[in-house]
Amino acid sequence: MAEIITASFSNVDSDAYLFKYFDSAESYQRKLRLYLDQERVVGYCLLTFTHISNKVVIKASAAFLPDYRKGSNTFIFSLQESFKSWLTKPWRQHYYADTMLSPAMYRAIAKNTGIIWPHFSHQAPAALFDHFNPDGDPSAENAIRCLVSVDRVSNYNQAELDMLLTSDKPEIQYYCKLNPRFNSGVALFVIIPVNLKQFLLTLIKRK
């Protein structure tokens, strides 16, 4: 796991990172999926579930070795586990509310998800961003508090950076407009509601 984290992020102490995301006492439930090549662990996706203000807040940590990075790796797992949680407590509001440091990861989720904020096709609820990201900064692009400084940077090489900055993918272009400092320790704060409407719209979008 430490090898994967070191390969994925710069300016990160892998032991401190593992402790922060895997051993935090705040979460009442964790779901972890490991991705293997033969017997070698090449990636992981960790979901944590926490009660905040009578809401269930889902956060994620995911990383892969360079040769195994595919945006769709974590989507189905995250979708399934989030809706399992919602089905056990459908009377309680569920939100994915966490940072995305990678434009590619944002695209992988946004292109498959029925409702995601911020997004160029959906009006983002400013009050939710103020609630979940009160210490964050507003983006100059949309005036929503959807930026947050983090203690890590994705470990992109120059060729990967150039490819992201010149991408013709609308989700990546939008991410870069919202968060032009994504390679300088600034992440995009993303909120995804988890409910029946989300499930139906996501199914339609993925057809």
How would you portray this structure in words?
With 207 residues, the protein is α+β, with helices and mostly antiparallel strands. Helices cover 35% and strands 27% of the residues. It contains 8 helices and 8 strands; from the N terminus they run αβαβββαβααββααβα. It has helices at 2-8, 14-22, 75-88, 103-110, 126-132, 158-165, 170-178, 196-206, and strands at 9-10, 29-37, 40-52, 55-64, 94-100, 147-149, 153-154, 186-194. Helix 3 (75-88) links the parallel strand 4 and strand 5 (94-100). The longest helix is centred in the middle third of the chain and has 14 residues, at 75-88. The model has no long low-confidence stretch (mean pLDDT 91).
Through-space gap between termini: 34 Å
Rg over CA atoms: 16 Å
The structure class reads: alpha+beta
Tally of extended strands? 8
Please tally the helical runs, counting DSSP H or I stretches of 4 or more residues.
8
Provide the low-confidence segments as ranges: none
DSSP helix fraction: 25-40%
**What's the overall average pLDDT, rounded?**
91
Beta-strand share of residues? 25-35%
* Strand arrangement in the largest pleated sheet: 2-3-4-5-8-6
The profile of the biggest β sheet is: 6 strands, mixed
N-to-C order of helices and strands? HEHEEEHEHHEEHHEH
What gross morphology would you assign?
globular
